[in-house]
Amino acid sequence: MNKIIRKQQLTPETALFEVEAPRIAKRWKPGQFIIVRPNAGSERIPLTLVDGNKERGTITIVVQRIGKTSAVTVATPADGAFHDVVGPLGEPAHITSVGKVTLLAGGVGVAEVLPVAKAFKEAGNYTVVLAGARTDSLRILREELLAVADEVIWATDDGSFGFAGNVVQLLQDVVKASGEKPDLSHVIGPIPMMRAAAKATKDLGIKTYASVNPVMIDGTGMCGGCRVTVRGKVRFACVEGPEFDAHEVDFEELTRRTKAYKKQEVQAYEAHKCALGLQAH
Questions:
Q1: Which residue, 142, 150, 109, is CA-closest to 126?
Q2: Which of 34, 43, 56, 220 shows the greatest Cβ crowding within 10 Å of its Cβ?
Q3: Which residues are annotated as a binding site?
Q4: Does position 168 have pLDDT exceeding 60, yes or no?
Q5: pTM score, two decimals?
Q6: Predicted pLDDT at 277
């Protein structure tokens, strides 16, 4: 069992957890992830590491309620514990000193880009985070982003704060307005956003890495659930990724694979919500 040290509800559907995990806290690096089971019978869900504290022996993750298991995880109380946490898994992000780095993040990806942005800045780069949310009230970790990046520019889908549109449109707008493009870009978020970002940055001639999030089960490459085609070759995101050259990823195939169990996921979540309703009465 991994004891929860701190829980912060960031939005109604998103929560931050600081969790006791001393071995992971000693070894983790930006870009790596863990696999969590909130209880013994749960599905295993991969979550990107947001932070780690060696002295406290804790790690920090942010979870968004999407399906049954993520809903169970978000609902775990502040004085509770997760049944098991495995990690750190995957390869660290490619952190180099190149000059100016723009990091695109949407939704819960805003939390996941935090350690990567911090690492790029510590490597001597000028860092600009383009962060996206559906609306102003769903913007998360605003102060934390400002603490690790040289610039933070927000985009909201409904235009309620900052740029009206998504982060890909924001990047195109920023490049057009300044007449300058970054030396490197990093993108993390929903697959449609990463696919659009890959196309836009390829058109602009910006080297880009994407942290992909395929179906993951065991986190060791044994099950093959996380297969991703990169430059025509099958790669295993849980051991060779999750970060790949965004311009080489077959996002069409990745989209199909992540939707393969959508029907079952929806059915499980609806059954979970019905069960909660029965318990409430």
A1: 150
A2: 34
A3: 62-64, 223, 226, 238
A4: yes
A5: 0.90
A6: 63
277 within domain boundaries: no
Q: Which residues are annotated as a binding site for [2Fe-2S] cluster?
A: 223, 226, 238
- 74 domain residue, yes or no: yes
Same domain, 104 and 50: no
Residue type, 158: D
- The 3-state secondary structure of 41-68 reads CCCCEEEECCEEECCCCEEEEEEECCCH
Nearest alpha-carbon partner for 59 in 20, 9, 90: 20
Residue with tokens 């780095």: 101
Q: What is the b/e burial string over 192-206, where b = at least 16 CB atoms within 10 angstroms of the residue's CB?
A: ebbbbbbebbeeeeb
149 and 181 co-located in one domain: yes
Task: Give exposure, 126-162, as e/b (b: 16+ Cβ within 10 Å).
Answer: bbbbbbbbeeeebbbbeebbeebbeebbbbbeeeebb
Distance CA 16, CA 64 (A): 9
